Amino acid sequence: MSLMDEPYTMLLASLPHLPAPGAAKDLPITRLQLSSRLKWLTPEDQQRLQRVEQALHWSHLPIELSDEQVIARAQAALEAVACDFLRPILLERLEMRTLIAALRRRARGETLPRERPWGQGRFLRRIETHYAEPDFGLGHLYPWLAQAQKHLQAEEPLELENLLLTQYWKQLARVDDPHAFDFSAVTLYVLRWEILHRSLRRQPEAAATRFDALVAQALESSPVSLEALA
Fold it and tell me: Largest alpha-carbon pair distance within the chain?
């Protein structure tokens, strides 16, 4: 079987290396270019990946969605993935989001709702019973919780965002990926791309460089979608 017979091998081989947040000044591949490559996925895998992105990325989660709807999307993504390798990775990411949601509620002086779902994962009961503790009694598993708490108390949203993006990147860096050229590998790449994208958007100099590059790209290729500049 030749390389041309393996579309996922070709897809992954065509994707540039993604440097860690803080080590890059610009994205090595734009979202428009990445989306074009992702069309090589089968229709079924495109739908699975879309479910994952709709559940994990805030840009796909309108603010008017209720907690129940956000949780339902996440559950649907976990079920759609249908992969024993990817599911724990996605679940841990959702658990990290649940921890941050609990920190935010406590910072606002709110209690946790008991009459409806408010989060996901293995630690809901522990968070509820240790709600008054700074790290919910989970600091041994998530040592960054203490720093996140400090950023919330100091009203430092940018520092909190940077901390979370760093933790998300570290989570994926810990993954021992045996799936070099399949859907799992593509999904991990897209998750890393989103983290790097969000990190760069928070760096004014990098954002300006990226904008200039996109404008140059738009001028060289016609027609061009406004999505490339979004």
Answer: 61
The one-letter code for the residue type at 98 is: T
pTM to 2 decimals? 0.81
Between CA 93 and CA 132 the distance in angstroms is: 23
For residue range 179-229, what is the model confidence (pLDDT) as tens digits?
Answer: 678 899 999 999 999 999 999 987 655 555 555 555 555 445 444 443 443
Q: For residue 43, what are the contacts with CB-CB under 8 A and spacing of at least 6?
A: none
CA distance 98 to 210: 32
Provide the 10 A C-beta neighbour count for residue 90: 20
**Can you read off the two tokens belonging to residue 154?**
């100091």
C-alpha distances in Å from residue 86, one per residue of 78, 142, 177 = 9, 20, 10
Check residue 17 and report its DSSP letter: P
Find where tokens 């008991």 sit. Answer: 114
Cis peptide before 223, with omega less than 30 degrees from 0?
A: yes
CA atoms within 13 A on the CB side of 171: 24
pLDDT in tens, 129-186: 999 999 999 999 999 999 999 999 999 999 999 999 999 999 998 886 666 788 999 9
Nearest to residue 92, comparing CAs of 160, 20, 170?
170
The tokens for 3 are: 């390389």
Q: How far is it, in rounded angstroms, from Cα 193 to Cα 74?
A: 20
Amino acid at 8: Y
Strand, helix or coil for residue 175: coil
Residue that the structure tokens 């959702």 belong to? 94
